[in-house]
Design goal:
mainly alpha; 434 Repressor (Amino-terminal Domain); two-stranded antiparallel ribbon; 155 residues; globular; 2 strands
């Protein structure tokens, strides 16, 4: 399914995969912040640019499977758990949208939300859903231990 919306004077076509990318990016960003990392630090661990991490987190593109695995490792998770966090946040976004819209007639939930509040509103809704999904996931809340300030003993 796709939906055409005029944004800033331009006609933009959205697909459900675009909404998934937005939720995935918000999830990755929230997990990164919970690990007290900035985008540059995550990028360094992944071997990619900070701007690419930014594009992921803004939902402009999805990482491929290889990079998604590296993201999971950098966030101290396994790939399956990272994927489950993203899917849970996506489902919660859908539920919140449907409840907000009181079951729209015609079209999908994400099309109705885009028509009503636009991509920024959907992004805000996704942010709340991501926070709720991560709050319920113990592995998403694992804290990274700070780097040791002591030097290794000399032999």
């Amino acid at each position: 399914m796709e939906l055409d919306i005029v944004a800033a004077g331009d006609l933009v076509t959205y697909h459900e995969s675009d909404v998934y990318a937005l939720v995935a990016g918000r999830t990755i960003g929230a997990l990164r912040e919970r690990r007290a990392m900035n985008q540059g630090q995550l990028a360094e661990r992944l071997g990619i640019s900070q701007s690419m991490v930014s594009r992921f987190e803004r939902g402009q593109c999805l990482p491929d499977l290889y990079v998604m695995g590296k993201i999971a490792v950098a966030l101290q998770m396994n790939e399956e758990n990272l994927t489950l966090c993203i899917r849970d946040a996506f489902e919660r976004t859908k539920v919140a949208a449907e409840q907000t819209l009181m079951r729209p007639q015609g079209g999908t939930w994400w099309e109705a939300v885009l028509r009503l509040v636009g991509i920024a509103g959907l992004g805000g809704l996704a942010a709340f859903a991501v926070a709720a999904a991560l709050a319920d996931n113990p592995s998403a809340n694992a804290q990274q231990s700070p780097p040791s300030t002591q030097s290794a003993p000399r032999i």
